[in-house]
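Batch queue: ligand-bound targets. Current item pairs a single chain with pyridoxal-5'-phosphate. No template structures supplied; prediction is de novo from sequence plus SMILES. Inputs echoed for audit trail.
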Amino acid sequence: MSRFWSNTVRDISPYIPGEQPKDKKYIKLNTNENPYPPSQKVLDAINKATNYDLRLYPDPEASLLISTLARYYNVADGEVFAGNGSDEILAFCFPAFFNTGDVISFPEITYSFYPVYSDLFGLKYETIPLNEDYTVNIDGFPMNAKGILLANPNAPTGIALELRQIENLLQKHSDKLVIVDEAYVDFGAESAIPLIKDYENLLVVQTFSKSRSLAGLRIGYALGNKDLIEGLNRVKNSFNSYTLDRVAQQAAIAAVNDDKYFKTSCEKIIKTRHTTAQKLVELGFKVLPSKANFLFVSHNKICAKEFFLRLREDGILVRYFQIKGIDNFLRISIGTDEEMNILVHRLKVYVD
Ligand SMILES: Cc1ncc(COP(=O)(O)O)c(C=O)c1O
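Prediction returned. Tokens below.
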């Protein structure tokens, strides 16, 4: 603690990312990274962008990437924003759309960055408990909040809402901004992007970190009506005009253009998720119905923390949250078939 810290910095509990240990080689199933590399076309684009031009600032508007995404999603360029990971875009939403002291709402169990951003930007938040089956209680959002933040699929449960439920939410709360964080949507859920043309209160945020294997480059994007996007640009250009570097912009364009690779790797992950879930059920695990690149599981004989510690000992990292309501669950990212077989084999030894 320094006497120069602001009150906010003194009081805040920062987000704790999943560990990235260096002590030995682990099977990493703890941060929802993609087990497959980026497409060769992306790697080629990165090589090509790594040249003398790196002395020059990148395009502050990321115009080529924006128009590539706009074409891909069949929207106008002005309806797309790009940023340094979806985390940054979510953070920009706070000063862009809310005032200090406003109340926003999100589920009690969700991405744990939301309360941290709320604290950082001086917002209050009201959380709504999940239903007993761990689904989001779509009817529970308060009418008097200024905004709703919703991860779909939700994290860390992996459970997705249907598009018609999102549409009902947008209609019921037409007076407030609904931000749908679709970090995991490509693994089998329905995106709300087609709704942006009809609902000016919808902002959809997505990322290249999971389904496009580019967590290391930090690229996210948002789609919404042009006034919302302009709001995000006003924040960005009051903070750091060059949030996306030259290499990231070129890599992202190549990733969007290589749709075949993207779809094939998502399909592989979905298939592995399905077979892993079946095997875990056979071992007596309760497995929540996931539409993400991870499974959220619990067992009634051995507690989640013990599994977590024993797996770590055995060189397999998964995520364990000491949070009331989910402290007997493990979140297991989907790796390759080989990695998942090793995991299942270890778990079988523990439960037998
Ligand atoms: C629900 C959710 N939203 C957003 C993010 C952030 O992703 P990015 O790497 O684009 O910042 C994550 C990352 O784990 C996430 O789980």
